[in-house]
Design brief:
The protein is mainly alpha-helical and about 230 residues long. It has a domain of about 160 residues: Serine Threonine Protein Phosphatase 5, Tetratricopeptide repeat (Alpha Horseshoe). Helices cover about 70% and strands about 0% of the residues. It is built from ten helices and no strands. The longest helix has 21 residues. The chain is globular. The N terminus and C terminus are likely disordered.
């Protein structure tokens, strides 16, 4: 998957998760919209969102949602807007981004938007990241975030549509599989099969069951009208 396609998938997954959590953000809607466009590859929009969220962070340094979104913006900026930055600067940017998202989760661990900002982006970004020493921790953070999103909605799963539920369960199944947590991955893939029969999510679950190994990235990306293969 190319960078542009991966970024579009990130936007789709973020948008889906917004519908999953059903909660108004404390961050201005225009800033969030710019950031979503930026995650999709619009560097100008990403810069606007990054600048605006930086200003908000200066005004409210302990606001968990602002921290989480600003950290996510920095993480995307390291990938999309890094022209002219040397390796040391990129590493520092990456460390600050992940540090802010981690602090946000520490401040408000049960805030779905905080969990979303960190978890969904890390789920999308980690397959293409260099396998540095901290890579397993990033994958674990993504899994923990999506798990918390699931736990917060587990008694209302029937109220979710096919797409939001499919993306949430697929993310959890894939992340657990990537961590060699086969039993946990199987439980979510079986949930997909039972709750979402006759869907591509179910087809992917059946494919995973054959080898019980992580599926190729192309088979774990977001589905829907924004799917670039359709």
């Amino acid at each position: 998957m190319g960078v542009r396609t991966s970024a579009l998938v990130a936007v789709a997954a973020l948008t889906v998760t917004v519908s999953v959590i059903g909660q108004q953000s404390r961050l201005d809607g225009s800033i969030v919209n710019d950031l979503l466009k930026g995650f999709g590859g619009d560097v100008s929009a990403l810069k606007r969102g990054l600048d605006a969220s930086t200003k908000r962070l200066g005004e409210s340094p302990d606001d968990a949602e602002v921290l989480a979104w600003h950290g996510a913006a920095l993480l995307s900026w390291a990938r999309l807007g890094n022209d002219g930055l040397d390796f040391t600067a990129l590493v520092q940017n990456f460390q600050r981004a992940t540090g802010e998202m981690n602090r946000a989760v520490d401040l408000e661990p049960d805030n779905p938007r905080v969990r979303m900002a960190r978890g969904v982006l890390l789920q999308i970004e980690t397959p293409g990241m260099p396998r540095f020493a901290n890579h397993p921790g990033l994958v674990e953070n993504a899994r923990a975030d999506l798990q918390r999103l699931f736990d917060l909605r587990k008694d209302r799963l029937d109220s979710l549509g096919t797409h939001p539920l499919g993306e949430l369960l697929q993310g959890l199944a894939d992340l657990n599989s990537r961590q060699d947590k086969v039993a946990e991955a199987e439980s979510y893939y079986r949930m997909i099969a039972s709750r979402l029969p006759n869907t591509e999510y179910a087809q992917r679950a059946a494919e995973w069951m054959k080898a019980r190994q992580p599926l190729p990235t192309a088979q774990t990306t977001c589905l829907g009208c924004h799917d670039t293969r359709r």
